[in-house]
Specification:
With 392 residues, the protein is of the alpha/beta class. The protein has helices spanning 37-40, 49-61, 72-84, 96-113, 134-140, 143-146, 164-170, 194-206, 277-291, 295-316, 339-348, 371-391; strands spanning 16-20, 23-26, 31-34, 89-93, 121-125, 156-159, 175-180, 183-184, 190-191, 210-214, 238-241, 252-256, 321-327, 330-335, 351-352, 354-356, 360-363. The chain binds pyridoxal-5'-phosphate.
């Protein structure tokens, strides 16, 4: 008999009932250190007082009104995002995959309105993940996501990740945009270098393509800058955001320049919940926290400490670890065991980590992870590695 919950997930037998900062409490009383953050979502940890206050205050006043009316919280969050980024305008969604849908529509509508409706193709990369909706799986093209779901949305050209020569060679008269994660998350914490991102930006300018960055996982402070592309000193034309922006409340956004957004006029897109007062009240509190003076510099200091300790861990357990990679609190441990086995062994040490492709275990702690918690994380990672060595 089919389970009451559609069985599309492989779930660990853990039942968390409460979250406090970097910690998750299991029903049976065990306290887990959470280096997963619900996959880069709970950026300020669990039950952060500023987010709880924003949500509960708004919940007392007004949960929902339609986008038929002005929504002041939405206006405020859009203004904060515009002030803090390259963008001139923002559309709110409820998830990363919805942001992907709009990014694709926006790029195609742009060229349509420019009188070049043939420029519908979007170049994407192997190992990418943009969500599970029809446009997002077609964009990724990965066998495990698209198999059985044909016919797929056409117009995506898949290229080897980081192969700039292949990218340049793939541009034709029908190419309209490039869609890429500056650092792949699900793909295994694989980063484009600053030089590659700069080259990509230059290529898009030269060949008249829109650059769409998917910062759903790497954005919102996770790499130590508000957005990951800032490290390379470039800006996109369109950017997808979700995960961390709501800190656990479902919220996403598409940020764009005025030019790139110029085709999205009255009536061309919409969402019932997107930009709802509850989500945007939380989003405002999140953005205020991340942009508060000293927050990201302090996070970068703690991230450097974690990185240094992880390098030591990798050196001490060469049978288990190959390398540590990533930036800020978007980290990957490339392991020599099955990542799923490592994550499972971590549960025994009361530690939450997240598997990814390319034999990587992700560490995505809350951006608030303290120095004492970093020491605790290392002790638990060490115990996990030691247990796996003993079992080998
Ligand atoms: C998680 C993720 C998505 C999809 O977000 P959902 O909210 O699950 O739809 C898209 N892109 C990237 C890079 C992601 O990590």
């Amino acid at each position: 008999m089919i389970p009451a919950v559609l069985p599309t997930y492989a779930r660990a037998p853990l039942h968390f009932v409460k979250g406090e900062g970097s910690w998750l409490l299991e029903e049976d009383g065990r306290r887990f250190l959470d280096l997963g953050s619900g996959i880069a979502v709970t950026a300020l940890g669990h039950a952060h007082p500023a987010l709880v206050a924003a949500l509960t205050e708004q919940a007392q006043k007004l949960w929902h009104v339609s986008n038929l009316y002005e929504i002041p919280q939405q206006q405020a969050l859009a203004e904060k995002l515009v002030a803090a980024s390259f963008a001139d305008t923002v559309f709110f969604t409820n998830s990363g995959t919805e942001s992907c849908e709009l990014a694709v529509k926006m790029a195609r509508k742009y060229w349509y309105e420019k009188g070049q409706p043939e420029k519908t193709d979007i170049l994407t990369f192997s190992g990418s993940f943009h969500g599970r909706s029809s446009a997002a799986i077609a964009a990724s093209g990965a066998e495990k996501m698209v198999k059985g779901f044909a016919p797929l949305l056409p117009g995506f050209v898949h290229l080897p990740f980081g192969d700039m020569a292949a990218l340049e060679a793939a541009i034709t008269d029908t190419t309209g945009a490039v869609l890429v994660e500056p650092i792949q998350g699900e793909g295994g914490i694989r980063a484009l270098s600053d030089a590659q991102l700069q080259q990509l930006r230059a290529l898009c300018d030269e060949r008249h393509l829109l650059l769409i960055l998917d910062e759903v996982q790497c954005g919102m402070g996770r790499t130590g800058r508000l957005f990951a592309h800032e490290w390379a000193g470039i800006t996109p034309d369109i950017m997808m955001v979700a995960k961390g922006i709501g800190g656990g409340f479902p919220l996403g956004a598409v940020l764009a320049t005025e030019e790139a957004a110029s085709g999205m006029v009255l009536g061309t897109h919409g969402s019932t919940y997107g930009g709802n007062p509850l989500g945007c009240a939380v989003g405002c509190a999140m953005l205020d926290a991340l942009t508060a003076e000293g927050f990201l510099p302090d996070m970068n200091r703690r991230a450097a400490l974690l990185r240094q300790k992880l390098e030591g861990l990798v050196a001490e357990h060469p049978a288990i670890f190959e390398e540590v990679r990533g930036q800020g609190f978007l980290l990957g441990l490339k392991v020599r065991v099955a990542p799923g086995d490592f994550v499972k062994a971590g549960y025994e040490a009361l530690l939450i980590t997240v598997p990814a492709a390319d034999n990587v275990v992700r560490l995505l702690p809350p951006l608030t992870l303290s120095e004492e918690e970093i020491a605790e994380a290392l002790a638990r990672l060490e115990a996990t590695a030691t247990a796996l060595e003993a079992a080998a």
